[in-house]
Amino acid sequence: MDGEAKLDFAWLPAGTEALADGEYDAIVLGTGLKECILSGLLATKGKKVLHLDRNDYYGGDCASLNLTNLYTKFGKGDPLPGLGSNRDYNIDLIPKFIMACGKLVKMLLHTKVTRYLDFKNVDGSYVYKGGKIYKIPATSAEALNTSLMGIFEKRRFRSMLMYIYNYEEDDPSTYDGMDLKTQPMSDLYSKFGVDANTQSFTGHTMALMRDDEYLNRPAIDAVRAIKMYAYSLERYGKSPYLYPIYGLGGLPEGFSRLCAIHGGTFMLHRSVDDILFENGKAWGIRCGNEVAKGDIIIGDPSYFPREKSRVTGQVIRSIFILRHPINNTADSESCQIIIPAAQAKRKSDIYVCVVSFAHNVAAANTYIAIVSTTVETANPLTEIEIGVNLLGEYVDRFDSVSDQMEPEADGTQDNCFISASYDATSHFETTSDDVLNLYQRITGEALDMNINADSTDADQ
């Protein structure tokens, strides 16, 4: 699956042409991943799609930037000497890994966008406990060998894992007296007597829950997530995660190509001056003296009137350029480290994502680390210090705090289908959920993602 050459998207229009004949089934604003997936899916359904972006590059908030563009975006002038050339770098603004058997992979396979991209397995997945980093035990064998817990706790944890892996929703003989669709996850933990530490890393690093509210929800949600984690790990071995060669920017580019192949019109560097409304319903956009009509308008919150969205919080993300791997990660060229909220004495987890030259996103022997979390105080930089301290010495850093936005309405009444901002998580599961939700609201039907898993490698 490793790639050798980056895709050339020069064939996509740069936005100098007029708005064609001006009438479309859907107008999509912004080339973030969510918007590009939706434009690709709609185009394959035969919809006439116009897709615009105010920037002169693809990806929006989730773009991958070269060195010069990164320094320019953060107002830091020229890149530091000795870092290499622009062509060596594709640095993500938003850090995310792809769960190997997760929803985004199913979308990639469903649309065959995998033919445009190459991926590499992430080397390891780790959890922080008591000032140290430990590999996340995800199999019964690893549960017995891990130094993350004592010998008696290992046995309890292994018994719980075996129950979860053997549990089948359509086979009551595997329930062992539990009703996971009604009983909370706290009941499942109690059944096996696992301690608070085991509950923390199981829920936050395997089930990928963002807070402890899941303890009070039906256990089936966490069990499904843990099983997906295990299946993903079994499929590729080192960790359950994949990452695109040349960075995450290739994902929106791939879906953009899918849309264009099916007749979509793309225009970069085209600002949208107004979204046009009549009787409370959007019917088009204005760009200068040009107007394009559209049955629906799709986009990220920044393209719509402010009253269409609300701020639900903030996320801090700090990008670091390193010359070394992270200590205690077996010299991994890529890894994820999750610091559970309880370990950081906070409400939200802290995520550390590391990629490197091995993925063609940095110069030789150079690593890119991104530390992120949901902001909880008036001093966001201090909130991620526990993650920053894991990195060791760094060459340079780039800090940003951004608002998390969500739409006020579902779009069915005003024809404005607005995506939510990207959260602090280091995986694409919540992103995929938002895409699937938007798709169903737009089309009135759920996306059928039934894929023969045995064919995934062949399709790529």
TrEMBL record:
GO cellular component, as recorded: cytoplasm
Any one GO molecular-function label of the UniProt entry: Rab GDP-dissociation inhibitor activity
GO process terms (BP): protein transport; small GTPase-mediated signal transduction; vesicle-mediated transport
Family matches, as InterPro entries: FAD/NAD-bd_sf (IPR036188), GDP_dissociation_inhibitor (IPR018203), RabGDI (IPR000806)
Family label: Belongs to the Rab GDI family.
PANTHER family attached to this UniProt entry: RAB GDP DISSOCIATION INHIBITOR, RAB GDP-DISSOCIATION INHIBITOR
Protein name in the entry: Rab GDP dissociation inhibitor
